[in-house]
Each structure stands twice: as C-alpha cells, then as structure tokens.
TrEMBL record:
SUPFAM superfamilies: Ribulose-phoshate binding barrel (SSF51366)
Pfam families: Ribul_P_3_epim
Cofactor note: Binds 1 divalent metal cation per subunit.
Catalyzed reaction equations: D-ribulose 5-phosphate = D-xylulose 5-phosphate
Protein name as catalogued: Ribulose-phosphate 3-epimerase
Chain positions recorded as a divalent metal cation binding sites: 33, 35, 66, 175
C-alpha cells in the first residue's frame, strides 16, 4: 500500500501570508492542497492561476490543485503548466474527463477526478483507469469548516473495491471535515490521501497538527 498523504488546505490559511503559511507545513506535510473556486461552480471565490504561479516559486512542496470551477476542460491545463503536481477537476463540470486527464498528464501533472456530495460514484467507476486520483468530497464543495459526512465513505469503499479488482494504482482522496476524530474512519474505508484545512491551519502549530493526523492513519 502507498503511504498516506496529508494535504493541508490553504483555504483555511491567512491569504495575506500564503508563502509563510505553506512554509509552516514544509517537512511535515506531503502536498499543499490549493482550492480554486470561481464563484460559479461553487458560491465562493478564492484564488486562481496568478497566485498559483507566484506560490510555485515560494516552495518546493507538491501542489494538489482542486479546481471547483466551471469549464475545467479549458482552464485546468494551465495549472499543470504552472507546475502543479496534481490537478483535480470536478466530474459535474467536465465535458470530457478522459480527454482532460490525458491533456493534464501530457503537461506533466497527475490527473484527479472529483465528485461532489450529491454525485453518485457509480457512473464514474469506469473512468478510474484514466485518472491518477479520485477525490471524494466528504462535504458539499465550497467552504471550509463544514461537518464531515460519514455516509460519503460508501463512495470511497466502492472506488477502492473497483481499484483493487481491476489492479489499478489510483489514489483516493477525501476532502471536507477531515480532523483527528474523522480521519481514521476515512482511512479504514480506503482513502489514502487526506485534505485538512481547519484541522491544520486552525491549530496553534500547523506542522504538529499534520504529524498528529498522520499518526492516526499510519499503522
Ligand atoms: C472545500 C474545499 C476543502 C476545504 C476543506 O470545498 O474543497 O479543501 O478547505 O476544509 P476543512 O478541512 O475545514 O473541511
Ligand atoms: Zn479542496
């Protein structure tokens, strides 16, 4: 099994000090989770490509870009070209997920497919061979600080079953309400990448919060 990934979300960080906020988790976290929202796919607005490009120069940490935007077919490749390690787009917004995943890989990134709270997993299981990661939202996308929804873990279990049965190497990431009291059940269901915003940046010591989360999913 690949080792678990802890990916703090800078959505819960101080946007006026992003470089420092990312440096605070260097050495402790695996990836930096970057939530891009366009006030259209979700009713919230965060950061976009210029900020990702600037931040890219400020840290060597891999970027796990989560695009909560309309028309990812058009905009996602720019994030791969900006040096994001993983670019995840939403199934609900994407015209041609297989083609987009291929484009992202050709641009040097890993491709992630995300499904929001109200989206069933079944229609997307057949896309698993074409992506590097599946992101299962454990809240409704749009805002940090929401309550973890354990019923979403059925999707994680279904994906993990298919990944195992078909011998695929696809990570399953969970995003939303991941904290010390929820991370173990997500791991138990088959998740191996964990996004945490509030649980990391709401803590007095973000690096320590990351280490604590990791200890809960490392056997
Ligand atoms: C929300 C974002 C999440 C958010 C999670 O739509 O995708 O990444 O930062 O925040 P917490 O960990 O506070 O639920
Ligand atoms: Zn996210």
């Amino acid at each position: 099994d690949p080792s678990p990934i802890i990916a703090p979300s800078i959505l819960a960080a101080d946007f006026a000090s992003l470089a420092d906020e990312v440096r605070a988790i260097e050495g402790a976290a695996d990836w930096v989770h970057v939530d891009v929202m366009d006030n259209h796919f979700v009713p919230n607005l965060t950061i976009g490509l210029p900020v990702v490009q600037s931040l890219r120069k400020a840290t060597p940490m891999p970027f796990d870009v989560h695009l909560m935007i309309t028309d990812p077919d058009r905009w996602a490749p720019g994030y791969a070209e900006a040096g994001a390690e993983t670019v995840t787009f939403h199934a609900e917004a994407c015209e041609d997920p297989v083609a987009l995943a291929k484009t992202l890989r050709a641009a040097g990134a890993r491709a992630g497919l995300a499904i929001d709270r109200d989206t069933p997993i079944e229609p997307y299981l057949e896309l698993l061979p074409y992506v590097d990661m599946l992101l299962v939202m454990t809240i409704k996308a749009g805002f940090g600080g929401q309550k973890f929804m354990p019923e979403m873990l059925d999707k994680v279990r279904a994906a993990r079953r298919r990944i195992g049965a078909d011998g695929l190497t696809v990570r399953v990431e969970v995003d939303g309400g991941i904290a010390a009291d929820t991370i173990a059940q997500a791991a138990e269901a088959g998740a191996d990448a964990f996004v945490a915003g509030t649980a990391v940046y709401g803590a007095d010591d973000p690096a320590d919060a990351v280490r604590r989360l990791r200890s809960l999913v490392t056997r």
